[in-house]
Design a protein that fits this description.
Elements: E1 4-9, E2 23-28, E3 31-35, H1 41-47, E4 57-59, H2 65-68, H3 71-80, E5 88-92, H4 96-107, E6 120-124, E7 131-133, E8 136-142, E9 152-158, E10 161-165, H5 174-179, E11 184-188, H6 202-207, E12 217-220, H7 224-227, E13 236-237, E14 243-245
Helix pairs in contact: 3-4
Length: 246
């Protein structure tokens, strides 16, 4: 059984390189899951011919808009435009239901009174505790990022494969644990050499590379600086629309 990973959006908060914000689709065993869903994700899905009603699960790493801001748009589309009928599960850090409901009301005032005609479930991820969500086994690990966003990394088991996604994080000892023996590590790499607090840069990643026991590594969430060095690195760099088969 093939597990497919598609970078619907591989960009940062600021549209560096003209890229859509973070949205990574994992497809296996007839299930489709989004790892993060940045504010531009619905537009990116439409541009790439992906039916948002075909998504079963959304897993969020943290509560920055370029990683979770697309969820209200997807839910509003499901209620008003796409007329969704199938169940949708949104998993994320503690407080995910309240955060997404508040964000939807902020973006679409009055929408709090609207009730979806499909089953909408929110699931709080418990750090280091494997949970079965939408047919996937998901384990969250603590990330080193803005504390107010409840940052996590995700380890996802699906289709006999393990995919680890860093979200946004500086180096932390939890990263090798989350990525241990993974078939694919999707790693934020914001700058090439410049250190930036609570984000990864390539110099730091290379310094710790031997600690990461992974079969494949892809860099994503790159700034203009990192994009300008994409040809200087050994690792594969993500691009919008890129598909990896495991």
């Amino acid at each position: 059984m093939t597990t497919s990973v598609r970078f619907i959006g591989s960009g940062d908060s600021f549209g560096s390189g003209g890229r859509f914000q973070t949205c990574i689709m994992v497809e296996a065993d007839g299930q489709r899951c989004l790892l993060d869903c940045g504010a531009s994700s619905l537009v990116a899905m439409r541009a790439q011919g992906i039916d948002p009603n075909g998504v079963d699960t959304i897993l969020l790493t943290h509560f920055h808009g370029d990683h979770c801001g697309g969820v209200p748009f997807l839910i509003m589309d499901a209620m008003l435009a796409s007329k969704r009928t199938r169940r949708l599960v949104v998993g994320g850090p503690q407080g995910v239901r309240a955060r997404m409901n508040d964000l939807r009301e902020a973006l679409f005032p009055g929408s709090r009174a609207m009730k979806p005609r499909f089953e909408l479930e929110f699931v709080e991820l418990v750090p280091r505790q494997p949970m079965v969500i939408g047919g996937l086994t998901v384990t969250a690990f603590p990330a080193m990022h803005t504390p107010e966003t409840s940052p996590t990394m995700l380890r996802v088991q699906c289709g006999g494969k393990v995919i680890t996604y860093s979200g946004d994080t500086d180096w932390t000892d939890a990263l090798p644990q989350a990525a241990d023996a993974a078939d694919l590590l999707i790693m934020e790499c914001y700058y090439y050499a410049k250190p930036i607090k609570m984000h990864m840069n390539y110099a730091t990643l290379r310094a710790h590379r031997e600690e990461l026991n992974v079969k494949a590594l892809v860099l994503t969430h790159m700034s203009e600086d990192m994009l300008s060095h994409a040809g200087d690195v050994d690792e594969k760099c993500a691009a919008d629309g890129m598909i990896i088969s495991l």
